[in-house]
Amino acid sequence: MWGARFLCGVVLALWCGQSWAQRAGESAVTEAEDAFGVRVGNESIGLYGAYDARGFSPVQAGNVRIEGLYFDQQSQPNNRVVRGSAVHVGISAQSYPFPAPTGVADYILRLPGDKPIVSNVLTYGNYDTIIVELDGQVPVNDKLSLGLGAGIVRYDNDGASKNFEWNAGLLFRARPSDNAEISGFWSQLEDCHNEQQMQIYSGGLYEPPRYQRRVYYGQGWSQGDCRESSGGVLGRFVLPDDWTVRGGAFRSESIQHRGYGDYLRNVQPDGSGQHMIQRFPRQAFTSYSGELRATKLFSENHRRHTIDVSLRARDVQRTFGGTDTVSLGTGYVGVKSRLPEPVFHLGPQTNDHTKQGTVGLSYDGLWAGVGALGFGVQKVLYHRDTQQPNVPLAVSKSQPWLYNGTLNVLLNKQVAAYASFTRGLEESGTAPFSAVNGGEAMPAALTRQIDAGLRYAITPRLNFVAGVFQVEKPYFSLNAANVFGPSGQVRHRGIELSLAGRVIEGLTVVGGAVLLQPRVSGDAVDRGIVGRIPLGPRERFALITLQYQPVSWGGLGIDGQVTNNGGQVARTDNRLRVGGITQLNLGARYNFKLADVPASLRAQMQNVTNAFTWNVSNSGSFSPRSPRRFYVTLAADF
Description:
Layout lengths: L1 H15 L11 H4 L6 E3 L2 E3 L12 H4 L2 E3 L2 E3 L10 E7 L15 E6 L7 E8 L5 E10 L4 E13 L5 E16 L2 E16 L3 E4 L20 E17 L3 E25 L4 E9 L2 E18 L2 E18 L3 E9 L17 E18 L3 E17 L6 E5 L2 E10 L4 E12 L18 E15 L2 E17 L5 E21 L2 E15 L1 H4 L13 E9 L7 E10 L2 E2 L7 E2 L2 E14 L2 E10 L7 E3 L5 E3 L4 E9 L1
Parallel strand pairs: 3-6, 12-14
Antiparallel strand pairs: 1-2, 1-5, 3-4, 5-6, 7-8, 7-36, 8-9, 9-10, 10-11, 11-13, 13-14, 14-15, 14-16, 15-18, 16-17, 17-19, 19-20, 20-21, 20-22, 22-23, 23-24, 24-25, 25-26, 26-27, 27-28, 28-29, 29-32, 30-31, 32-33, 33-36, 34-35
């Protein structure tokens, strides 16, 4: 029976396939507990994501978890092993014994269950993207289950560049006893023939000329190739006297075999600019990380006390640099130019080795009907060696104390007030490849965050959250010599709102807004070299999503979403801004039976009105907002 089902799934995948156990029922809208960011399968919704929360990146800061355990991400585990992720900020971050500034991005594994399933999904779009994947789970016995999957993807990106990807994953889940569970995963992705669209930099106080979207302006030979892999083992053991031990050990690697950067700099009002091409040699980023945590639970009457002792560690090695940049003469915005590949002279590379260990102790007290109080302290040992070509070894050490505190008070049965303070040691990311020192890891830095707000349970299935926050970090930017490095301090203050849940039977809402005030301070600002507003974050983002799928419609549902982005500064001196954009997305979903198995058909059109604005990166490059696009997905679980 299992073999017949698996074979049937394979046959179906050849003409309709993308993936994973029980994919037909996945919906980011119905599974979102708030509007702060959730991803389920291929769908995502919310104000934030793993690479953008409160104007910063949890991934870049090193605030990533897998099933709640510390994970140093160099490559993201793919959809073969990850069911989804959620961004936790404000009151939702208080569930973590050691929260972090910028919020926490937590990946949820697609652990195999106790019955055989083969899932297939086919996605066509956006544009001419085609995704074909097949995944399955099989119980070996009542104590061990296995999962496996593979996929092939042909991406057609916003800028009409193409890339081909294959990915695969394996999982296992073992339950040797009622008090023990061990699981593990491995995922790999090969991204081949990754074309590089031209990046545009304005030469003055003006936007670049608008050009036709969905046209590839890069070179046919500027194709990169990369490999990403990650894996790990997790365990959970319940011990006598209310002790629980959890642990995870992970490996994450990203290797770029070769890569290119295509830039049109100093663009003039007529669209002309200096065309530069950059060639990267092999770049490698590998990390080993993990956490061992022991939890003790005490209970007395209506009070519960939880103590966590944690040991975290990571060992990261990076090899980068050695790039060569060649001028291709004068180029023009919106004009194709097919030029022969020049001769590149690649140079020696930089090697970077970071080791970090952290021991922590936290307490969380819960008083039923009253509230909760928590605090934690951590000691960090940080060591980093950087060996640049023809430069003496640079050594960086730090041994800071980190601490956090949380407070949650129930004002009545429906309203809770919360507040928290967190001091962290976070990664500062890497220099963009457009910089002279592209790929160089910036030094880890002390950061801090405070937030407070209210959560109102309008009904048992509909919640509203309103909060304020402030995050402070060192600021990194490009200087006049195009070198990326520290140049002051950045502070993000903001207001965030979330409304999520079921309004009435069949009607689900996910809506929210974040109003952000990013500000930079320091010597560069005082001397007028850098403006007070940093490049990158938009000062406003709001969305409202409604999905209506009543039982009387027999599995049919419709949904609509409106998003609004505020404007951005487009120069480091803040003398140029680009406008905001309001976007409309419309979709439908149909859950049905296909050959007596659960299936779903999902379709959505994004940016229905084909609205236009520029996106400006933190390095100052301009790219147009994605035009109108459409996708359709068919999923079936055998």
